[in-house]
Queue: 2 jobs
Job 1
Amino acid sequence: MLGNNMPVNEVAYFCGYSDPNYFARISKKHLDESRIKYKERTINLNELPALS
């Protein structure tokens, strides 16, 4: 999910959900934010320089 630009419906089907809307609601509930916000935040964290 983080390393690609798959639409939410493809991610849902890949994870075994037949209803992309349900997957989006469940994801938001467990992540406390939308999939897009989670992805943006996580990618930004991964771009931080490593601490020495």
Note: The mean pLDDT is 76.
Job 2
Amino acid sequence: MKKVGLLVAIMIVCVAVTACGCQNNSEDKATSNDANENASQAVDNADAMKNLKMTINGTEVNVAWEDNESVDALKQLAKENPLTISMSMYGGFEQVGSIGQNLPRNDVQTTTSAGDIMLYSGNQLTVFYGSNSWAYTRLGRITDKSESQMKELLGNGDVTITFSILKESTTSNYDPYGTQNRYDVEDKMFERQSGVDYGRVEKDVSYYSTVAGDYKQCNILLPAGYNENEKYPVMYVFHGFDGSHSDQINDGSFLTLLYGNMLQKGLTVPMIIVNVDMYTDKQSEKSAKSEEQLRYIYDKAIDDVAIDLMPFIEKTYSVKTGRENTAVAGLSEGGAKSLCTGFKWLDKFGYIAGFAPDTGVIPTEFYKGTFWNTPVFDKFPQPTEANTPYYLYMSVGDKDPWNIDCTLYYRDVLGQMGVKNQTDYVKGYGHDEPFWEQCFYNFLNKIFR
């Protein structure tokens, strides 16, 4: 009887253990399913809230949003239906309106400037067209309006601000001509900031140029997080006269820092930037060349980029091909060469920019009879519907000592041809780095979107 009793007891324990195991397995499966559902829902929410759009009285503005709980909560409010806030002018420097509920806050004493978007007292939206010092939680900053444009937008009466989630399918409708360019970008955008990954500069990368009949070099900026399993659009950059392939892309150069800061703030897209060397001839003879000889040697870079450099970049790096993924920009003499390259190779370049471009693109009356004005084209090649630039951008400062007339002439000729372009004649700038900085900001902000 003792054996029978012991056997029964063992059977009872086994049944109990089995039942517990089944229950635990069921609980584990339920927990796993819940986790998968939560993860899937989180991905759906992230996709649904990928782009937060802001309009002021129906005018859409570009915003660099902060990555914080306050902005996440604002996105949630606009997720299903647009969130509209009635604003009121206050103090001659801001518009204020009630959000209707409290958002998470982390107030910090801040001196604001035009374009700043702040959360005040946890439940008040504040947008500035002037300056004030107070404790706020920063939500973001409007990036495509100057101080005078912000004052015009917000300083003439109460406004209505609407937030909505911009669905992914609508992003292809972006019009780079739809917003004015900025020329008041703050100095810190061109300086090294803590916590920002500026990518990797590959220096003196060598390739063989059939156009030069020799090896050439270029500097290449790979974006933060560069991954060979992903593909990236490419921007080719021409330096100025007597410059080199390390002028714009180098450790600590303004373009390297600007691009890293813009990418970190979501103001541009991941891309590869190639600093072209315009000298396209035998390297051993470079030091003996005169200015006139250099001028004509630089013309050869127009073909070198398309025939030799682009295939090398596409073979060596993880690159998106096609004109929709390729841009060219340059300054001064490089601005003239970028226009020539873009227009000669319209099938390869969808985005073209020339910052205070020199003469020598098409015939003009400026510097006539000098080697500076020997034109590459008799006239601009006429784009077709299939190869019209997605964005054509030129600019020149009103204090530029050389290239005001030719830049505006290029604008007028292109306009007469029916070629859409955005050409800015900018007050207060000359022919120097502070102007190039502003121009590159604008171009980086608008390409490949």
Note: The longest strand covers residues 133-142.
